[in-house]
């Protein structure tokens, strides 16, 4: 029996209480990231999801060193929510960051950004329409896609080692604390679904 | 009550000094200065140049009623783009600084512009958060921030009660409402806005409105005081009811085809009748 199977049986038998940990929210020093990070934090305050979570809100300045560390954490069981903040970045910055994310997390991005439709359609973990956020960071491949904008994949999940990554190509955070019920619903259900799958 | 009008009404090709002279002759007590509108008062205008403007205003025997800005429509604190939001914070902080230099205690800000792709809830939260920060700056400067109700253009804070609730959430005695009685078109009655927001009114903009027109083409909804559909007697009574005794500032569209300066004189006379209550 593996360690995970032992733990799962212990959990089912009520012998172990799962650890509720706060996510590490790694906001960048700009308004877009800080705003989104604050709202992700508020969402987490209202739930009891277990596991090792790292949230990168409105990201547009990730270093190569941080990407390597995140990859390593994911391989050891963490789930990384990478929210693209490239909506207002220069084309050079967009190319540099998406290349980094491709190499580090095995994502695949479309050549050009796209002004999103007003709404994003999530298909997993539930069908839900939420507000888009201006220019999307579009994915090239539909593999693992969980949301689309105008028929193009814009959000995905990907398993990496014992953990994985949820990539959000259209910002969700600003809607989380702004009374957007549907954004709150998809945000909560996303982390609950991942937590359930990996517990 | 003191009366003022904006420097954006100065006829074309008028210098700052000539404009001030015109206002003085028409009987105004002060001038509302619009940051970013006319060449003499821009973001690049230095502190020294601002002090020179202040000297000219003093020399003419006028005061600055408040510092408004013409920049919020392009650089708003509700913008999704953080660079635009930071620019908005900068120009509002510059308004606070220059208000101190001009010796006045109020500025005007248009907070929040709801658009098809910039939804109401986001705008509301960003404006509240930004104004909580700016309220601290305003307290240090001892200059009040008056949020203007541009309801129809902004598609934001559309009722007097919602505006009051919004100010409750901002929760700063240094952030109030710069109430424009001409901006309440088909969504309400100016006198009710005055009653509900009374103690929080920092300044009042005066103009009239053709409520039946709607907004189409060149046919403006705005018009000179007493020519439109505002209930001026009720507005004046509401001002008395809430003890408003501050500045009344005409904000007019320059619509005179001939003798543009005459609009400044006619408006001064209308403001005198209004403040005197001879309606």
Describe the protein's topology.
The complex is a heterodimer of chains A (199) and B (279).
Chain A: H1 3-12, E1 24-25, H2 31-45, E2 53-59, H3 64-75, E3 79-84, H4 91-105, E4 114-115, E5 119-122, E6 128-131, E7 135-136, E8 145-149, E9 152-160, E10 163-168, H5 173-176, H6 181-198
Parallel strand pairs in A: 1-2, 2-3, 3-10
Antiparallel strand pairs in A: 4-7, 5-6, 5-8, 8-9, 9-10
Chain B: E1 2-6, H1 16-26, E2 30-35, H2 47-59, E3 63-69, H3 82-102, E4 106-109, H4 120-141, E5 144-148, H5 151-154, H6 160-170, E6 175-180, H7 190-197, E7 201-206, E8 208-209, E9 222-223, H8 232-241, E10 247-250, H9 260-276
Parallel strand pairs in B: 1-2, 1-10, 2-3, 4-5, 5-6, 6-7, 7-10
Antiparallel strand pairs in B: 8-9
Give a brief outline of the structure.
Chain A is of the alpha/beta class.
Characterize the structure shown:
The complex is a heterodimer of chains A (199) and B (279). Chain A is α/β, with parallel strands linked by helices and 199 residues long. Chain A has one domain: Rossmann fold. Chain A is 37% helix and 24% strand. Chain A has six helices and ten strands; from the N terminus they run H-E-H-E-H-E-H-E-E-E-E-E-E-E-H-H. In chain A, strands 1-2-3-10-9-8-5-6 form an eight-stranded mixed sheet, with helices on both faces. A two-stranded antiparallel sheet of chain A has the order 4-7. In chain A, strand 8 and strand 9 (152-160) form a beta hairpin. In chain A, helix 3 packs parallel to helix 4 (91-105). The longest helix of chain A has 18 residues, at 181-198. The model of chain A is unreliable at 10-18 (pLDDT under 50). Chain B has 279 residues and is an alpha/beta fold. Chain B has one domain (2-276): Divalent-metal-dependent TIM barrel enzymes (TIM Barrel). In chain B, the strands form two sheets. Chain B has an eight-stranded parallel sheet with strand order 3-2-1-10-7-6-5-4. The two termini of chain B are 16 Å apart. The mean pLDDT of chain B is 95. Classes of the chains: A alpha/beta (199), B alpha/beta (279).
